[in-house]
């Protein structure tokens, strides 16, 4: 059996469903009234055969027909109302879980896992708001129809009970037979989606290196595995659905036969014959609906378990309120920093230590693989460290709300990492969506672009700052994208500026703009940390740190460090 409670071991999932309990309670109440009204056709049949036909009462037939019409109209309205309630329940689940899923993606981690989490959330939302959820709410009322069948005659009740037991056994067997295939199909399809996403993001490289056909073949193989497993599950489910449909139709007809035998013996009335068939059909219908939709049900439960794995924390963590600290001056202190590789196999940083004071430019140099980029990402708050400490103005980064701290840090990674949006949105860090003042955003955006030396280029774009650029800076050259990313780092005059190879794609004019902006940031009191190997960007640094094997080898004033280096100055990028 699928263990539903596994998903609800996650406090986040449990809290989200608790937030929807009003919706579920209202839907359950509507289901109660619906299923009571489903008794109306059976009662109508009893009255027609036992009262109208026997007495020839045409007026009675008119009245009970009007009553049936009202009952069925009310039933239809309740059914529509329940559907709306369940749709709103799905929307409420989305409101509860989507912010946490999207924050987890935006906080870093595997892009493919994040995309899978969004798909899982949509699967759960659609299932909660769909007809399968309605069938699940109807299923508990099956015993009511069995009890009414017992009231007609014990033999009819026993037959209804036995038929329901057979259908439940078939349903459980269907779940057991398809569970492994559905889980495997979900995992394989997730891998396929992840591969497609990565290939699409690197399409240019794929074409240039002639990898298109091999990658297409690999993706087709991944999809074939998923679709094969899904097809097997659907074939098995189809057989069980057909068997259940056959049995339900046979059981309804058999109920008529049993009723006829009882009527011949004078144990029930003629009207009870048809009523018994209607009651049995209604008792078995939810079970049949669940089996028919079992593939979707299984997918939803798998998605729910996946979400529980993506969101294991307590939702109260998001609501944790920290003491609001004053704007930092920019003093950065890193002590014995340790960062392990994602697989935990080796340390990338193994005891790095440095200090960057306000009004100072600190350069970090070292050979390829020494941990420079990892150190820059930790200082910028883009990567969590495993051991050691990183402090700003004496306070650990954890003492800050990440978005508040990020407003005081300007970070320029090796890759520009621009996002889908306008030039202004990218430079302003999408401040418009944070609710910042529009005039202030415009002024800061233009000032940052001017400081980065990119303002004139932006003004030549078709729509200027409102020109839309695609993800990964499509439509821009590498140098243009890097200067826009540099302007983003300068936005709002941050007190800490972390630049990782800021001139990697720039010409001499671009380098000059970067150096001038670094000096300007230092002069206004910011601490500037720059990783570079080209002399032009390292000229204005006040202090140097030499990294080797993830450790601080030498640190101090620029001239003293250079004097201590007996060999050639370490150069190269970190891989």
TrEMBL record:
- Membrane topology listed for this record: Multi-pass membrane protein
Instruction: State if Methyltransferase is listed as a keyword.
Output: no
A molecular function (GO) held by this record is: ATP binding
Which Gene3D superfamilies does the entry mention? ABC transporter type 1, transmembrane domain, P-loop containing nucleotide triphosphate hydrolases
User: What organism is this sequence from?
Assistant: Tsuneonella dongtanensis
Which stretches are annotated as coiled coil?
none
Q: What is this protein called?
A: Type I secretion system ATP-binding protein PrsD
Compartment(s) of residence: Cell membrane
Give the keywords, sorted.
Answer: ATP-binding, Membrane, Nucleotide-binding, Transmembrane, Transmembrane helix
Q: What is its main location?
A: membrane
Q: Which residues form the ABC transmembrane type-1 domain?
A: 25-299
Occurrences of domain ABC transporter (ranges) = 332-574
Q: Does the keyword Lyase apply?
A: no
Transmembrane domains' residue ranges: 24-47, 59-78, 144-172
Mention any one GO cellular component term assigned to this protein in its UniProt record. plasma membrane
Which Pfam families does the annotation name? ABC_tran (PF00005)
Question: One biological-process term from Gene Ontology?
Answer: protein secretion by the type I secretion system
